[in-house]
Amino acid sequence: MALNADDRTAVTELLSLHGHLFDAGELDRLDELFTDDVVYDVTDFGQEPLAGIAAIREATLALGAANPVAHHITNVVLTEITSGQVRALSKGLGVHTDGTCGSVTYDDTVVRGRDGWRISRRRVIARRVPLGGA
């Protein structure tokens, strides 16, 4: 069964919700974004992957004022892997308190569960050089 328009909308809105929850500090709602066993891979930033919602919440709180004040997502491309599982590629922009910005690519695996779509794996890839370094 192909990914239908309702699923595409639901997954895109899920990805968009990320910025709203983090920017508002609503870390008690991360279960609306992630599966309980989510792997949040930040190895591109020199960190170990975070396993589970509690680890994401703790790492976010530990980062404190170094967190971006605004997370924006754009350029969402969805590809069905299997029925109920989607690969979502998107671009992320983070605005810091000093006005500087950073860019990442989110490479997500999104799964449909009893509570709807949730991110089960997120790899955050830093964008550091133009044209992917080519």
Automatic annotation (TrEMBL):
<dbReference type="Pfam" id="PF13577">
    <property type="entry name" value="SnoaL_4"/>
</dbReference>
<dbReference type="InterPro" id="IPR037401">
    <property type="entry name" value="SnoaL-like"/>
</dbReference>
<feature type="domain" description="SnoaL-like">
    <location>
        <begin position="5"/>
        <end position="123"/>
    </location>
</feature>
<protein>
    <submittedName>
        <fullName>Nuclear transport factor 2 family protein</fullName>
    </submittedName>
</protein>
<dbReference type="InterPro" id="IPR032710">
    <property type="entry name" value="NTF2-like_dom_sf"/>
</dbReference>
